TrEMBL record:
NCBIfam families: 2_5_ligase (TIGR02258). This is RNA 2',3'-cyclic phosphodiesterase. Its EC number is 3.1.4.58. It comes from Janthinobacterium violaceinigrum. Keywords: Hydrolase. The gene is thpR. The active site is at H45, H129. Pfam families: 2_5_RNA_ligase2 (PF13563).
Amino acid sequence: MKNLSPDTHTPRLFYALWPDDATRAALAAWQTQLQGQPVRPEKLHLTLAFLGQRPASDLPALLAILAQMPARAMPLLFDHASHFTKLALAWAALAQPSPALLDLRAACMRALAQQALAPRFEHDRFTPHVTLARQAPPPASQDFAPIAWQARELVLVESLKSSGDYRILASRQLA
């Protein structure tokens, strides 16, 4: 586990599935077909649960939750780009969320609730996606080569306010 960034008393955290290099490159190729500000390839991920700002004292419990989540690799098939109009985000969409992904999300939310750490603003609705571009109009084309991602890495990430970068604090391999 890495340490929190210096002077971080309330880090901004989230759990995510982290793509391998080949998946990251395929997602980055989709970005060339989109308008807007592309998300840097090293930041591409699928958020499982956004935790928001948390006191650093929550970190041991959050790490324990990461260690206890189901550790099963899962296939994800992205087959089209979509758009969140209100947020002006273009994103990679799944043909069908896999039951393993939905089970992992549910297990994560249950574990957070059991530790009284469930995000107040998280809704039961979960739209799994990878944000590809911000300040983006809807995708003009739907001609995207499908991306098959065998998700094998679950991470706890700190979002650094000062730079907008991400730091992986802990990682769990999914077998």
